[in-house]
Amino acid sequence: MGVIEVKNFRKSFGSKVVHKDVNFYVRKGECLGLIGGSGVGKSVLLRSLIGLEKPDSGQVLIEDEDITRMNEQELTRIRKKVAYAFQGGALFDSMTVFENLAYPLREHTSLNESEIRKKIISQLAEFGLSQSESLFPASLSGGMQKRVGLARAMIMGPQVILYDEPTAGLDPFNTKRIQEVILKLKSQGVTAILVTHDMPTALAVCDKMAFLKDGCVVAQWTIEQLHRESTGIIHQFMNGEIA
Q: Helix crossing, 172-187 with 142-154: angle to 10°?
């Protein structure tokens, strides 16, 4: 059915039940907006899609492979297909922008240093980051850090990217740049899940929305449906009427 499928997903931390029965799927080239109030476990789901969290029960399928049953070696193969763009960029502070992007290429490919440099310079240009390769993360603005994080997430050419609050704390100009990056990647056939509280960005880049509440996906609408309808639980959330 989809590149990503989550079936009957259940997850607890001690006595706290986070997910009771989560089900959704994302087809190739689609961007799903995963929305809901704070503390409903959106990031837990994202982390589960690369094996950083294991459900208590249920399945997480990436291209029909259930990753919940995989060991670390098998998960490494999946993580080359599925990139995670962490909320703060998650850059290595002691490395330059160039070294941050070179790290996964040196670890997981057989490219030589000349090929690595060519690939990184091209990637930085594509993300509007030319001339930034010698800078350290501390000297970058918040918007640049997020774009460098996205550039690093995409450097291995993954088929899927998971965005965790990519526009949080950004001004309108940098928010628009992140939206443009997401749309460009989508046009290249990249499948995505976007966790966000930024509803204008979700409406601008997503194909559909899944609303998490009380441990389940309680509503899933396409963007066309959201524009066509003016009521419903997703509209209530977007309008600040419910948490």
A: 10
35: helix, strand or coil: strand
* pTM greater than the 0.70 cutoff: yes
- The Cα 241–Cα 176 span in angstroms is 26
Taking only the tens place, the pLDDT of each residue in 100-109 is: 999 999 988 8
Number of domains the chain contains: 1
Ranges of H-type helices in the chain: 42-48, 72-81, 97-108, 113-126, 142-154, 172-187, 199-205, 223-228, 233-238
Cα dist from 33 to 93, 202, 203, 207, 210, whole Å: 30, 6, 8, 8, 6
Residue 31 falls within a domain, yes or no?
A: yes
Domain that holds residue 42: 4-92+159-238
- The answer to whether residue 103 sits within a structural domain is no
Beta partners for 106?
none
pLDDT 10s digits, 26-80: 999 999 999 999 889 999 999 999 999 999 999 999 999 999 999 999 998 898 8
Residue 78: both structure tokens together: 């999946």
Residue 97 lies in a domain: no
Whether residue 75 is contained in a domain is answered as yes
Kindly report the CATH number assigned to the domain that includes residue 9. Answer: 3.40.50.300
